[in-house]
Design goal:
alpha/beta, 6 domains, eight-stranded mixed β-sheet, three-stranded mixed β-sheet, 19 strands
C-alpha cells in the first residue's frame, strides 16, 4: 500500500477536525458554541465523507457563517439519511432558500431533515424545475408571441408574462413522462397568453353565477379544449402531447370542441358555452391545466398595455419624424400611419403614407405584443407622442429600490447566476436593465472615416470579395467551364488507349452567407481613455465593412454595479440600419462601471437566439477579466459564472469568440472561451484594424 493511499484512508482526528472547523466557522462560534461538538459528530465518518463535509461547509460558510455551522451540525445525520448526493441536494435547497428568503428560512430548511426526506421519497423519479428551466425557456422562445419567464410556485398558472410551475413533478414513474408533463404545462399556459384567454374582463361574467369558483373551473376546462385545437393548427406535435396527457372527453365536451375549434375562436366563445356546462358535474381536470387567476392576469396585462401604448407612441413619433424629413417639400401635412396585422400569425405590415416600412426589431416585438393583447393594433395607438415613454413615474424609484423585487418593478429583468462552489445556480440573482446609449458627438464617425479612409476602402473590398466568393467544384460531369487539368489527363488517357473520364467540367457553387453576429462591447470603467477610443473606432470600421458584406449584426455594450444593477446598452439592434442614430450611439460609447459578464452573455444570447440564422456568433470586445464591486464576483467566481454562461450559449447553438487587449488573458480566457475561441491583441492601437480582420477570418 502506497503512502498516498494510506493517507486517503486515515481519518482526521477530532482535534484536527476541530482546528479545521475553527477556521471555517469562526464567525459563527462563541463561548456557548464551539467546534468541539460538531467535530465529535464528524470524526467517526469515513475520510471521504469528512472531506465532503469540510468542503461543503466552506461553500455554505462563504454565504454566511451561520449556514456553515448549521450544515456541519446536521451533516452526519443527513449523510445517513440521504447519502452524499442527497445531502448535496438538501444543502442546495437551503442555499436557494437563503438567496430568496434570507437566513432564518434557510436554517429552518437545514433543520427539517425529516420533511426533506418525505419530499424526496415521494418524488421518486421526479424532475425538478431547476433541472429543466433552461430547456423549457429555449423551447418557449421558439414559439410565437412574447417571451415568458418561468418561476416556481405552489400553484400552476400564468399572469401572461410569467408561467408559474411546480417546483418538482413526480406524477409518473419515469423521468421522461414527468418532463413531458412539465412541457405540456408550459405549452398550455403559453397558449393562454398567446391566444388571449385573458383578453376580456372575466370578472363580470363569472360574478353572474351563484358559485363563481365553479364557473371559473368550467371556463378553465373549456379554454383548455379551445387552446388545444388552436395549438394544433400551427404545432401538431404539441397538440398531440396535450391530447396524450388528458383523459378522454365526454360526448358533450367532444361536441363543444367542435364549436371551439374554429380558427377565429376566442375566450368569448368559451364564455358563451359556460351557461350550458355550469350545472353539470365537473369532470376530472387535465393534468396540465393548473388554475386561472383572471384578476392577477388582468393587473399584469393592464400595466403592460399602459407601458406599451406609451412606448409605441414614442416609436411611431420617431418613425413619423424620419418619414417627414424624407418627404418632398411640396408635400404638406403629417405622414399617415397604418398597420395591417394578423392575430393568427402575429405578422403585420406598417405603412407610412401608403409605403411599407420595416421597423427596428424592438419595435416589431412591441407591435406583436400589442397584437397579442388586442388581436390588432387599435386605431388610437397610431397616434404619435413625444419622447420619454419609458421614464419611471417616480424618478427616484430606482434609487430607492433596495431589494431585487423592487428593482424589477421599475424595469429590471431577473437572471440566474452560476455559483461554482455550490455547483448550482443562484436563482433570480441578477437584475438587468436595458437602455439606449445616449448619442455623442455627431461628427465623430465622420472624423473616424476620414482618419481610416484608406483602410476602410481596403476592408470593404475584402468584405465584398468575401460576399461574392464562389466555390469551384472541379472534375464534374457538367458545368459552366472546362476543367483544363482534367481535359489534359483525358487527352493523355486517349493517346495511351485508356478510357478517359467524363468529369471534365468546373461548376461554380454560390456560397450563401446566413450569419447573425452580436457584438458585445465592454463599457466598464477600465476602458477609460485610449482603450475606449480604440473600441469606438473598431465599431466604426466593423460597421463600415459589414455594410458591404451584408451580414446581420447588432451591437450592445455592457457594464454594471453589483448584481442589482447590471446594465445593457443598445448601440445597434438587429432590426436597425447603420443610421445617423446608430452612429451617434457609437460616438456616445463611454466607460461606465464594472464587468459582470455572465448576466450580459445570458441576456444577449437570448436576443441572438431570436434571429433566424444558420450561424450565430457572439463576438466580445473586452479589456479584462470579469469583475464587479464588492460582492464576491472577482476572481474564480466571476470567471466560472462567465464560463458557464458561455457554455449555455454554445448549447443553444451560438459560437462565442473574444478579442481582448488584456495581457493577462492567457491565464483565464482559454478556460472561459476554449483554446481556439479568443485572440489577444498586444497593441491596443491596432484594435480597430485587427478586429475587422479577425471577424473576416472568423466568418469566411
Amino acid at each position: 500500500m502506497t503512502s498516498a493511499m494510506r493517507a486517503a484512508d486515515v481519518l482526521y482526528t477530532q482535534a484536527e477536525l476541530e482546528e479545521r472547523l475553527d477556521d471555517i466557522l469562526c464567525a459563527a462560534l462563541s463561548s456557548r458554541r464551539s467546534a468541539a461538538a460538531i467535530a465529535a459528530g464528524i470524526a467517526p465518518l469515513p475520510r471521504a465523507q469528512q472531506e465532503f463535509v469540510l468542503g461543503w461547509a466552506q461553500v455554505a460558510a462563504h454565504n454566511v457563517a451561520e449556514l456553515g455551522y448549521q450544515f456541519t451540525a446536521q451533516a452526519p445525520q443527513a449523510l445517513a439519511l440521504f447519502g452524499r448526493g442527497g445531502t448535496e441536494k438538501w444543502l442546495l435547497h437551503a442555499l436557494d432558500a437563503y438567496d430568496k428568503e434570507g437566513l432564518y428560512p434557510a436554517c429552518a430548511a437545514l433543520k427539517d431533515l425529516a420533511g426533506f426526506k418525505r419530499r424526496t421519497d415521494a418524488a421518486g423519479e421526479g424532475v425538478a424545475l431547476t433541472e429543466v428551466t433552461r430547456v423549457l425557456e429555449l423551447f418557449l422562445r421558439g414559439l410565437a408571441g412574447r417571451r415568458l419567464q418561468l418561476e416556481a410556485a405552489d400553484d400552476t398558472w400564468t399572469d401572461t408574462e410569467t408561467i408559474f410551475l411546480p417546483e418538482r413533478i413526480a406524477c409518473y414513474t419515469s423521468r421522461e413522462q414527468n418532463f413531458s408533463l412539465y412541457k405540456a404545462i408550459a405549452v398550455h399556459h403559453w397558449s393562454q397568453a398567446r391566444y388571449g384567454s385573458f383578453n376580456v374582463e372575466l370578472g363580470p361574467a363569472l360574478a353572474a353565477y351563484a358559485e363563481p369558483g365553479r364557473a371559473l373551473a368550467w371556463l378553465n376546462l373549456l379554454e383548455a379544449i379551445r387552446l388545444e385545437s388552436l395549438v394544433g393548427r400551427s404545432y401538431a406535435g404539441l397538440a398531440a402531447l396535450l391530447a396524450a396527457l388528458r383523459p378522454e372527453l365526454p360526448a358533450r365536451l367532444v361536441a363543444a370542441r367542435e364549436r371551439l375549434s374554429q380558427a377565429d375562436s376566442s375566450i368569448a366563445d368559451s364564455v358563451l358555452l359556460l351557461p350550458e356546462f355550469y350545472p353539470l358535474p365537473l369532470p376530472e381536470p387535465f393534468p396540465y391545466m393548473g388554475s386561472l387567476h383572471p384578476q392577477r392576469a388582468a393587473e399584469v396585462r393592464g400595466e403592460r398595455i399602459a407601458k406599451e401604448r406609451r412606448a409605441l407612441y414614442t416609436e411611431l413619433e420617431q418613425l413619423r419624424q424620419t418619414a417627414q424629413a424624407e418627404r418632398n417639400e411640396s408635400q404638406a401635412g403629417e405622414p399617415e400611419l397604418d398597420v395591417d396585422s394578423s392575430f393568427d400569425t402575429l405578422e403585420f405590415e406598417l405603412q407610412i403614407d401608403g409605403e411599407e416600412v420595416t421597423p427596428p426589431e424592438e419595435v416589431a416585438k412591441l407591435i406583436r405584443s400589442i397584437i397579442q393583447d388586442f388581436g390588432e393594433i387599435p386605431e388610437e395607438y397610431l397616434l404619435a407622442s413625444g419622447p420619454g415613454a419609458y421614464a419611471a413615474e417616480d424618478p427616484s424609484a430606482d434609487e430607492a429600490a433596495s431589494e431585487v423585487g423592487e428593482s424589477q418593478a421599475v424595469g429590471g429583468r431577473l437572471y440566474d447566476e452560476w455559483d461554482f462552489r455550490r455547483r448550482d445556480y443562484r436563482k433570480d440573482w441578477c437584475v438587468l436593465f436595458e437602455s439606449d446609449v445616449l448619442p455623442g458627438d455627431p461628427g465623430y464617425v465622420a472624423a473616424v472615416r476620414v482618419r481610416y479612409a484608406g483602410r476602410i476602402a481596403q476592408l470593404r473590398r475584402r468584405f465584398e470579395a468575401l460576399r461574392g466568393e464562389d466555390r469551384l467544384l472541379r472534375r464534374q460531369t457538367e458545368g459552366e467551364d472546362i476543367d483544363f487539368d482534367a481535359a489534359v489527363e483525358a487527352y493523355a488517357d486517349c493517346k495511351s488507349g485508356v478510357e478517359p473520364s467524363e468529369r471534365l467540367f468546373v461548376q461554380r457553387q454560390r456560397t450563401e452567407r446566413n450569419i447573425a453576429v452580436m457584438f458585445m462591447v465592454d463599457m466598464s470603467g477600465s476602458t477609460k481613455g485610449w482603450i475606449n477610443t480604440c473600441e469606438r473606432e473598431a465599431l466604426v470600421l466593423l460597421c463600415e465593412a459589414l455594410e458591404a458584406l451584408g451580414d446581420r449584426y447588432a451591437i450592445y455594450g455592457f457594464s454594471g454595479w453589483t448584481r442589482k444593477r447590471c446594465e445593457i446598452y443598445r448601440i445597434k439592434t438587429f432590426g436597425e440600419s447603420y443610421s445617423e442614430a446608430v452612429r451617434g450611439r457609437i460616438a456616445g460609447v463611454e466607460p461606465r462601471d464594472y464587468t459582470r459578464m455572465g448576466v450580459a452573455i445570458r441576456h444577449l444570447s437570448g436576443i441572438l437566439n431570436e434571429v433566424e440564422a444558420k450561424t450565430r456568433i457572439l463576438f466580445t470586445l473586452s479589456d479584462g477579466k470579469p469583475d464587479d464591486f464588492h460582492d464576491g464576483y472577482r476572481g474564480d467566481y466571476g470567471i466560472e459564472d462567465t464560463r458557464q454562461a458561455l457554455l449555455e450559449a454554445r448549447q443553444s447553438g451560438i459560437h462565442p469568440f473574444c478579442v481582448t487587449i488584456d495581457e493577462e488573458a492567457r491565464d483565464y480566457l482559454p478556460h472561459m472561451y476554449g483554446p481556439a475561441s479568443w485572440v489577444l491583441i498586444d497593441d491596443a492601437g491596432q484594435l480597430p484594424l485587427k478586429t475587422a480582420d479577425v471577424y473576416r477570418r472568423l466568418t469566411s
